[in-house]
Amino acid sequence: MWGKLLGVCFGFMFGRWLGAIFGFWLGHLFDRSLKQDFDKVGGFQGFFKGDDLHQRQALFFSSCFAVMGHIAKSNGRVSETHIKAASLFMDEMGLHAEDRQEAQNAFRAGKESDFELKQAVQDFKEVFSRRYDLLQLFLEIQIQMAFSDGHLAPQEVQLLKKVSQLLGVSNTHFSFILKRYQAEFKFRQQRAQQGEQQQYRAPQPTSEISRGQALAVLGLSEPANEKDVKRAYRKLMAQHHPDKLVSQGLPQHMMEVAKKKSQDIQAAYEFLK
Question: Of the candidates 55, 82, 60, which has an alpha carbon nearest to the alpha carbon of residue 71?
Fold first, then answer.
């Protein structure tokens, strides 16, 4: 249809009615040819084939666990804490049987001395270069693994910086992400402690969530007004929206990771409100 319409318009401009008739004929040929090519790829369904999405999800999955394994061995050996953290991470994702075995194999591959971190991250970035939220989540997951024992060793920080640079993340934004995750880690711990205290009806809580800690989860500090809080909240929720991330290539198994981050952001915002 569009070929005929454009053909008539341009034909009339250059040849009046005779040109319009000729343009209509050319447009008809164009439309027929376009339809044949369009049908070959399955019509509109061709734009929504899942093969490419599944490939991106598989790459995210394997790359994530391989780099996790590499960072876990940054001190020369993988500690029991890191092994437990990786296992708990797989539990949170609900990995069983073949999926869990694939994750374990990728983690082991990352621990090998011949693992090419630079090549692995560059390959990952090449596929996800236009999906900045996924690049950021990938980096956050690596920070989560490194911080699983409650602190970061100098070697871990250096490796995380290297990964962020390979992903194209600036040093300033890396520092921002790192600081925000550390706040998120403490915030989550304190929420869990308060939940236990309420369950057992402890007379006095041993830890209280402060405004400063909730602000830090949103990447803010004092002085921050209501407008700043709303802006930061909306931006972070958009970046960590599970459904959006899955549509961009986040594996379904890792949807739980995005959900937990969204819950922390939501809880910090509700506390500040």
Answer: 82
Dist CA 139 CA 134 (whole Å): 9
Query: What CATH architecture does domain 184-200+208-272 belong to?
Result: Orthogonal Bundle (1.10)
Which tokens go with 83? 């092994």
pLDDT tens for residues 113-130?
999 999 999 999 999 988
pLDDT (tens digit per residue) in 51-104: 688 899 999 999 999 999 999 998 788 888 888 888 988 888 888 889 999 999
- d(CA 258, CA 272) in angstroms, rounded, equals 21
Residue 46 near residue 119, CB atoms below 8 Å: no
**DSSP conformation letters of 31-84:** HHHHHHHHHHTTGGGGGG-SHHHHHHHHHHHHHHHHHHHHHHTTTSS--HHHHH
The tokens for 51 are 């093969």
Query: Which residue ranges does the chain devote to CATH 1.10.287.110?
Result: 184-200+208-272
pTM for the predicted model, two decimal places: 0.74
* CB 150 within 8 Å of CB 75: no
The interaxial angle of helices 255-272 and 132-146, nearest 10 deg, is 90
